[in-house]
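fyi for ur records
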Amino acid sequence: MRVVHIITRLIVGGAQENTISTVLGLRQKPDVDVYLISGPTSGPEGSLVGRVAGIPGIYYETPHLIRPVHPIKDVLALRDLVWLLKKLKPDIVHTHSGKAGVIGRIAAKLAGTPIIIHTIHGPSFGNFQGRVANMVFLAAERLAGKYTTHFIAVSQAMINQYLKAGIGRQNQYSKIYSGFNLEPYLTARNDPQLRARYGILPDEIVIGKIARLFKLKGHDDLFAVAPAITKQFPKVKFMLVGGGEWEERFKKLAESSGLKDKFIFTGLVPPEEIPSLVGIMDIVVHLSRREGLPRSIAQGLAAGKPVVAYDCDGAREACIDRVTGYLIPAGDTERLATALTYLISSPTLRESLGKSGREIAIRKFSEEEMVNRIYNLYLRLCDRLMEAK
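which gave:
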């Protein structure tokens, strides 16, 4: 079985880590040849290219596959992908992310690939963007959907959203949660030396957020509640893990709000260092308005941390209200402050919610389980194709 995965960029992010984990996991299967194609990776988000570029013969980069809409480069990317797919002759093309998902599936169809799969990591259309952009992306998804043999969604919320938009049929969808290596999170500890390195005192409470410093990630809402939280609880600090285009903006906001000593900016952090940072957090917040299944929630749960999350997309499938944390309506900063107050005030509550979350993470978010389910799906689709012949 020969499989080609296509993704727009290999930046540091949940969809990209999911894709690389899948590719590397499939390489361990004796009957699978797997390849990965992406466009150029650059920008403040960091790069994961090093994880695959050093493996001979597995990774291809096509220069014209870029994230922004660009009619000329998009046509060239389509041409490049068709040529590569005809050269590799895969049994399965498996696409990821918005741009690669659309162009990759069309290229696979033109190249004659018999099985075309697309993973929905997050919505490419919705009310988070303008009306014209939404119409364009929705039309593109509907077009590519016509060439899709099967969809993998990282949450039930994504299946519901795409079916409601008229993309595919119910029997074309499989829900496979995005898995990751749980062990570093299960063993993460509240390391005093690491806390000291970031200027965190032993008795201070750390509220952590792992996300790119950019729009739709909800950092502004955290800044909105921070003054009242820190006034009521002087021994609270906020740790923002990640880099991004809005980093300087948020640093200036912290300073102008008189909260410079309350916010810790780690900057861009390699993925392998995330578990240790989650280990020194007492509470994990996730306030994104758009994400299929937030990886930072699952990471927090695996480390035994209570989570406060906005009820957007697939968040409720990991953050279960009053079981693993608090699930609140998007933008409701009053309830955000209340939830944080409850958790800051009660170490017993934090421990109880964290214990429940860890049990759920072990059950739902294993990397091995994700790879095995994707592999078994491949086998079923190949068998079905053979039977049809």
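The longest helix spans residues 367-388. thats all i got for now
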